[in-house]
Design a protein that fits this description.
Layout (H helix, E strand, L loop, with lengths): L3 H17 L23 H12 L9 H4 L2 E8 L5 E10 L3 H21 L9 H4 L1 E7 L2 E4 L1
Antiparallel strand pairs: 1-2, 1-3, 3-4
């Protein structure tokens, strides 16, 4: 699906985030309107598993240096089965609108492929926590925010 180095880097990034976020609660809501979820928090292992499932599908391929320097934040709403039902770019740091579009398209594909290929490991008993998640994508990988 991608180069082995990219997958390893993305997985390392996801694992580091999972460790750093131990006990952290995923946030919901858009820019400026964040509220804590109603359910129990995701643990570090769950955060790492979710991040790895999507990061392993994150592949920019051969793109411009503008795209390689782009960072986007994507908000994903899931239905109770774990299917992504709404994927939106909510923040971007990009040298051009075209670079942001290319990065967002790759992020959206990564999320959809993760769901279609093997599912995203979202714990059913914590739906209130993960029904809306935000992910940060950049050339180095992806992480749960």
């Amino acid at each position: 699906e991608g180069r082995a180095g990219d997958a390893a880097g993305a997985e390392a990034s996801a694992a580091a985030l999972g460790e750093a976020a131990a006990g952290a609660r995923a946030e919901t809501g858009g820019k400026g309107g964040r509220t804590a979820p109603a359910g129990p928090p995701l643990n570090a292992g769950e955060i790492g598993d979710i991040s790895s499932a999507i990061a392993n599908k994150w592949n920019l391929g051969a793109v411009s240096t503008d795209v390689m320097s782009t960072v986007i934040v994507v908000r994903v709403e899931f239905d109770p089965s774990g299917k992504p039902v709404d994927i939106r770019k909510i923040e971007e740091d990009a040298p051009s609108a075209d670079a942001a579009r290319v990065a967002f398209d790759a992020a959206r594909r990564a999320i959809q492929r993760a769901y279609m290929d093997s599912g995203i490991p979202l714990p059913p008993d914590k739906y209130e926590t993960w029904k809306v998640l935000e992910f940060v994508f950049d050339a180095n990988g992806m992480r749960l925010r």
